[in-house]
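Reading a protein record of the kind used here takes only a little practice. Think of the row as the fold of the chain written in a discrete alphabet. A record is reproduced here so that you can trace the correspondence yourselves:
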Amino acid sequence: MPGKPYLIAIAGMSCSGKSTIARAVAAELPATIFQLDEYYLNLDHLPPEERARYDFDRPQALDEVLIAEHIEALARGEAIQQPVYDFARHTRTDRTTVVESKDVIIIEGLFTLYWERVRRICGTKVFVEASHGECLPRRTARDIVERGRTAESVLEQYEATVRPGADAYVLPSKGFADVLVDGTQPIALAAQAILRHVKNNPATREK
């Protein structure tokens, strides 16, 4: 609708390139990036060993209600207090981050296209394609550096929950996408494909 923020949803498997592509698109617009990763449920009621075994690769591992409420608030032009998640401890911190609404909001995460409540308010829905063989090495490198993991623990988790979760929940959501981009191609090409859809969308031209 005229005057309201335009929402772009970017989904795909873990380490398919979603975050990098979202940043590239945001830099061209500019836009606010809304990351689903901050909305994992707080597991501080569980012992650390149980947290480590928790299945984070299903939609039920995230705070679906708060996600929808915050996205809808941004879509109305309102700022939100976004939670901050500690991936090393699998807990939600006491801190929050103020996220301001802009003319364009990019929602990025595994399950962005899974929830109908989120899909229906997005003008451009994107799925980033990449195989397990391409995503696993990226995830291993990221989790070792950023989340204090070992290569063995990353592989164990990938086979136990990441791969099955992607196959069950993430990959089927590709059918809802308006734009498919290759997560292994140059980032600029993916960003251009998304920006073309945004530009050509009638909702954009109404602004």
Observations:
- The CA atoms of residues 4 and 99 lie 16 Å apart.
- The two ends are 7 Å apart (CA to CA).
